[in-house]
Prior knowledge:
Elements: H1 21-32, E1 35-37, E2 44-48, E3 51-56, E4 62-64, H2 74-85, E5 90-94, E6 128-132, E7 135-138, E8 143-144, H3 154-160
Antiparallel strand pairs: 1-2, 2-3, 3-4, 4-8, 5-6, 6-7
Helix pairs in contact: 1-2
Amino acid sequence: MSGFFNRGFGRGGGRIGFRNNSNRLAASLSNQFPAKKESETGDVVVQAYGAVIIRISTTGETRIYREGIEAKNYAKALKVMNEHLKKIGFSITPSNEDGTTTGAGAGDSCMVDQEGGGGGGGTPSPRWSVSGMKKFMLFVEGMILPPPPSPGPGRGLALLLPTKV
Length: 165
């Protein structure tokens, strides 16, 4: 029996082709600020909002930065960082004024920024915590993330891969 009743009307609540736009935004951020390989050093670098935010050496040593980013762009830079860092198994979450983390890791750890690290202009930087490889750390300017199990260019190559839309 073909016809009207085999067309699938009424199934799925009218959400055929529905997509979550948050994935598109994240993908567009990593495409707007792509990872690039420096020819002179071979390092993979991500630049956003006028500053280098991630640098991965050829051995896999990963450094993260926020120095040079204006305070008004911290939240946007954090989104760009997370979009790239999730490819290598890390994430950064902002902390509240009382030192507790927000978002998915709420309640996992209490972070207090002892170093102050970060932006210019004498403005206090927000407190960020870094998690990955079953470790929780306080974000410090220029910090080195825990090394991969096997050293090599794998992390840099992961950042160079395009993000799926």
